[in-house]
Please model this.
Amino acid sequence: MPGMIRMNDQLELTLGFIEEQPREAAEIIAAAEPAEGGAFLAFAPLRSAIRLTEHLQPWSAALILAEVPLDRTVAILRDISYADAAAILRHVAEAERAGILEALPARLSRDIERTLNYPVLTVGAWMDVSTPYFKVTTTAGECLKGLRSQGESCGGMAIVTGRGRRFAGVVELEKLLLLNDDQPIGDIIDSTFTPLSARASLSMAHSNPGWRRFSGLPVINRRNDVMGLLRQDALEQAEKLVVPASLPRSGDSIAGHLATGFVITISGFIQLLSPDSRPGQDVSAVRER
Model:
């Protein structure tokens, strides 16, 4: 049917727009009614829903996800960054937040709850408490194996502890790579490094000289125990707390025309992907992306 072909073509453009211009797509979704945005996230392919949520401001994402079924909300929050998930849940009402946390994987839920105990504009609210730390007696080989499991989120360093979780210093990744596998990392520890306090303000965190060397800095509590890592991207996330005055104009460009088509497509996209779609329409290929 000609109408179906046109709708499917528009869906392809919409999904492509989300993939290529996720920030602009998120701004458009945020400008819609929360119920309409929620319906879109509920029925869109999960990859597209995640891409949009990653680029929504936390307060906006919270409003929209309130209109999304719990299982889809959990699937989205589980696959976005730890910092994004915690920031969004901070804006969710306590009762609803408790239900989401209960449905999330236990470790992720526990870690997010820990950060939510800190005021929103402090380091503790944005730290990643899942970051590993290592004893001074840990060998270089064991340390590298642990860091590889974290990918780039280690901040370019290994956090080193003494007794218990007491902060002892850091080891630069570049220097760590030069050690023999059986050599203890304590041999090259920088014990003069100044970590961040979990209760410090984000403005104070910006002034730490450690950012010149690393993309993430260790966070400690009042007892000097290691709590986690604050990454640069988490600091940038704090800027999303500011509610925009208005939606930026797309301009007379290809992206602008795609954005216009994206707005028009939202309602049709929801209708096409919903369980009440007209008989005979096969949308499985679209939803499985």
Remarks:
- The two ends are 23 Å apart (CA to CA).
- The first strand starts at residue 133 and ends at 135.
